[in-house]
Every structure is written in structure tokens, then in C-alpha cells.
Design goal:
The chain is 55% helix and 2% strand. It has 167 residues and is mainly α. The chain has one domain (4-146): Four Helix Bundle (Hemerythrin (Met), subunit A), CATH 1.20.120.
Length: 167
């Protein structure tokens, strides 16, 4: 069973994807200033997971050009929805392999990068990743509302399979 914080990340991912249900390719690349488009947000979250769990956690980075396309502080882009969803699925699938190994003691450890320990431990990075999903899920809802989409989720979804259990 995954660590409870990992389970929270899995739930946040599920809710993020639920928010995107039914989005068209055309709407996914619409920018409502000053926000980025929905497809960018998908790639952006994939980039964070790729950096944390695949690169720092497992020593492998998928899609090395992702940062230049959707990284924080990079120029705005409108990548295709299908491409970003495919990348997100591959990145998160690979990330799960590392995430499934996490235990409470391991969450208190630090990744090293270029010979230096990061400022935040693995558990803090995991929390940052979870909160990042919730931030962008809210933003995605706002974008969809501005695009005139109806029947959007209006509350946190079904929690079956994500019940809290202390490890």
C-alpha cells in the first residue's frame, strides 16, 4: 500500500484529470490572459513530476525538452492536448515506480543534485507536488468556466480507494 501522502498525490492527479474531462483540442490551447492554457498546465505538472520522481528519485528523465516548453518562467506555449496528455501519462506511470517505494523515514531524507542536498526533503517535495496539483486544478476550472463550459465538477470527487490509512 502506498504511503498516505503518495495516496493523496494519486487522488490529486485523479481530480486534476476529472477536471479536464471532455476538453477539446481547440479549447485546451486557448489562453485567457494572464493564465496559461490547459494543455500547458498538463505538461507543466508532468514536468514537475518528471523532475522530482523520475530524475531526482530514479536518476532518469523522460522528455528532456519538457522544461523548455512548459517549465516555470519559460515563454508561454500552447502545446497540443493529445501530446501533453500522453507525456503526462508516461511521466506519472514511471513516477509511480519510485513513489511506491516511499516510507515515512524515506520522506525525511533529502535528494542531492550536483553534489548538494536540496533545501526541502522528499516529503516536503511530495507535499509541494500535491498542492501544485490543487492549485492548477482550481485554475483549470476557472479557465473552463471562462470558456463557457457547463456541468463542471463542483466538489471534490469520489474518494473510494483513497481512504486514509496510516502506514
Amino acid at each position: 500500500m502506498p504511503h498516505p501522502l503518495v495516496n493523496q498525490l494519486y487522488f490529486a492527479r485523479k481530480e486534476f484529470q476529472r477536471c479536464l474531462t471532455g476538453i477539446s483540442e481547440e479549447d485546451a490551447i486557448q489562453r485567457i490572459m494572464p493564465m496559461n492554457c490547459l494543455s500547458w498546465i498538463i505538461g507543466h505538472l508532468a514536468h514537475q513530476e518528471n523532475s522530482y520522481w523520475n530524475f531526482l528519485g530514479s536518476g532518469e528523465i523522460l522528455f528532456p525538452d519538457l522544461r523548455s516548453l512548459v517549465g516555470y518562467g519559460k515563454p508561454a506555449s500552447t502545446p497540443p492536448l493529445t501530446e501533453m496528455q500522453k507525456i503526462w501519462k508516461e511521466v506519472t506511470h514511471k513516477a509511480n515506480i519510485f513513489l511506491e517505494t516511499l516510507s515515512t523515514p524515506r520522506l525525511e531524507e533529502y535528494f542531492t543534485y550536483q553534489g548538494k542536498s536540496l533545501d526541502e526533503n522528499i516529503g516536503s517535495l511530495l507535499q509541494r507536488n500535491i498542492y501544485h496539483y490543487w492549485f492548477h486544478t482550481g485554475e483549470a476550472h476557472a479557465i473552463r468556466q471562462q470558456l463557457g463550459h457547463a456541468d463542471l465538477p463542483d466538489f471534490v470527487g469520489e474518494m473510494q480507494g483513497f481512504y486514509y490509512k496510516h502506514d
